[in-house]
């Protein structure tokens, strides 16, 4: 049984990154970023608001545009996705081997 809390969605990191740029006087809008990484504004907005996952492709695009670590985005997204799935009803699976 996994003991996790509700980990952050990778979109939160992107949102915080954009907020940080704004505070530094280098504001980038969601529309500008979406155009730059060649995705729809709707998709990027869904990612930032935790409604869509960050894929490896999007993580690499964000890295290219903003310098955010694609590896970090994927690790954060993976933890979040595992937690979300662990909260769902799943069939009982009997293990082949009993771990000690």
Could you characterize what this model shows?
This is HigA family addiction module antidote protein. It comes from Acinetobacter terrae. Pfam families: HTH_3 (PF01381). 58% of the residues lie in helices and 0% in strands. It is an all-alpha fold. α2 packs across α3.
Query: At the third CATH level, what is the topology name?
Result: 434 Repressor (Amino-terminal Domain)
CATH architecture: Orthogonal Bundle
CATH class: Mainly Alpha
Nearest-integer average pLDDT: 93
Number of helices: 5
% residues in beta strands? under 5%
In short:
This is HigA family addiction module antidote protein. This protein is mainly alpha-helical and 100 residues long.
Keywords, please?
mainly alpha, HigA family addiction module antidote protein, elongated, 100 residues, 58% helix
Provide the fold topology.
Layout: H1 10-23, H2 30-37, H3 41-48, H4 56-66, H5 70-86
Protein name: HigA family addiction module antidote protein
Organism: Acinetobacter terrae
Domain HTH cro/C1-type: 28-73
């Amino acid at each position: 049984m996994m003991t996790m809390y509700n980990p952050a969605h990778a979109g939160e990191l992107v949102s915080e990154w954009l907020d940080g740029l704004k505070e530094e006087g280098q504001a980038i809008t969601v529309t500008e970023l979406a155009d730059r990484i060649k995705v729809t504004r709707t998709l990027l907005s869904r990612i930032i608001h935790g409604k869509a996952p960050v894929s490896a492709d999007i993580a690499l695009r964000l890295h290219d545009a903003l310098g955010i670590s694609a590896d970090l985005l994927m690790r954060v997204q993976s933890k979040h996705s595992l937690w979300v799935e662990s909260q769902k009803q799943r069939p009982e699976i009997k293990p082949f081997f009993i771990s000690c």
